[in-house]
Amino acid sequence: MVVPAQLTAEAVNQLREGIDLLLGRWSALQMAIQNEWGGRDTRQKAQQLAVDVYRWLIKPAEALYVDELENLLDDFMLSLNTEIDDGSIEEVADNLLIMHEECLEGNFASIERLRQSIPNVNHRMQVVNGGEDDSDSASSSGDESMEMEDEVDPSSQPPQAQAPTVDADGWTVVSSRRNRGGRH
């Protein structure tokens, strides 16, 4: 099958939604948003990340390198005072590139699986409120590690005092060392 060089209008819309869904399931990003590790405008910064990722993905396919996307994601998380050492950046980048390739082929199955794995949730970037959501259902697509951690209660401790959090898949998410200490 010959893969088209450009996304169709439908594929563009699907890709945008897929980016939002995938970033919305990235527990490290969601914890940074919920705890405002990047400041009070962390949510707006995360929305801009989705735009930046989309703009990066619509470059000519021969100019897309996973290392560059990983650097974009890593730099963004560092801008939120969040250092990631668990491999989730690589996984998110890989999943975004796979999704892009599928969209080029007109295949939206992975995006549909993401939609179905998050019942009763607005598909725009959203943070779960302390365990009141049932979005922890497992996905059959193998991307359970992308699920948000919905057991975090930001009012239980200030963000700079929180210990590393281990999600259901054993991934550890920690705030950057720059965010620890006596700052308030």
Automatic annotation (TrEMBL):
InterPro entries: Pre-rRNA_process_TSR2. One of its GO terms (biological process) is rRNA processing. Residues 126-184 are annotated as: Disordered. Keywords: rRNA processing. Residues 144-153 have a biased composition (Acidic residues). Coiled coil: none annotated. It holds the Pfam family WGG. Residues 154-164 have a biased composition (Low complexity). PANTHER family: PRE-RRNA-PROCESSING PROTEIN TSR2 HOMOLOG (PTHR21250). Belongs to the TSR2 family. This is Pre-rRNA-processing protein TSR2 homolog. It comes from Ambrosia artemisiifolia (Common ragweed).
